[in-house]
Design brief:
Order of helices and strands: HEHEEEEEEE
CATH class of one domain: Mainly Beta
CATH architecture of one domain: Roll
Largest sheet: 5 strands, mixed
Shape: globular
Mean pLDDT: 78
Oligomer: single chain
Length: 169
């Protein structure tokens, strides 16, 4: 028996990423239906690629955040709109109102700290496939490059889901 795993002809990683992004859409859609009121202590941190296709943010924000930006949906947001492709929302930055349009494919993280829930995504390229990326340099202790054990504190019971299927090179 060989240790080599054959390349999959089914794009499982893309299918899972799409399904998890649908979770974000459903949550935001439910908030939209209730009139943009977040229940209880819920609030969302949403991180997205500012240069991704379909992202529309004011120029002063793009200059300040040329690669990635995190927004918080908690108390002061308005005009939340959600469709199959993404969402729009009004937020204030240094007391300057702004409208943001964010496709779900641009989102790299979604966190609701009130219930210790989070999702992390691979950034998507223009053709809808995950962008290639270098291996993270901050994983593990750094002492043993072959060490695949989780980082210290990783088994804290949090509900963060990370999906990253390895690709053969």
């Amino acid at each position: 028996m060989s240790d080599d795993t054959p390349d999959s002809l089914i794009p499982y990683d893309e299918i899972v990423q799409e399904a998890l992004r649908a979770v974000v859409g459903r949550v935001l859609g439910e908030i939209q239906q209730t009139g943009s009121e977040l229940p209880g202590a819920h609030h969302f941190y949403i991180t997205f690629k500012t240069g991704a296709p379909g992202v529309s943010i004011p120029d002063h924000l793009r200059e300040r955040f040329p690669d990635e930006m995190t927004i918080v949906l908690q108390n002061k947001f308005w005009d939340l709109g959600v469709d199959e492709e993404g969402f729009t929302v009004g937020l204030s930055f240094n007391q300057i109102p702004a409208k943001l349009e964010i496709p779900f494919a641009a989102i790299t993280a979604f966190v609701d700290p009130a219930v210790d829930f989070g999702l992390q995504f691979q950034a998507m390229s223009e053709d809808g496939t995950p962008e290639p990326h270098d291996e993270a340099e901050n994983d593990g202790s750094g002492d043993d490059p072959d060490d695949t054990s989780p980082p210290e504190g990783a088994e804290d019971g949090s509900n963060v889901v990370t999906v990253d299927f390895g690709r053969k090179k």
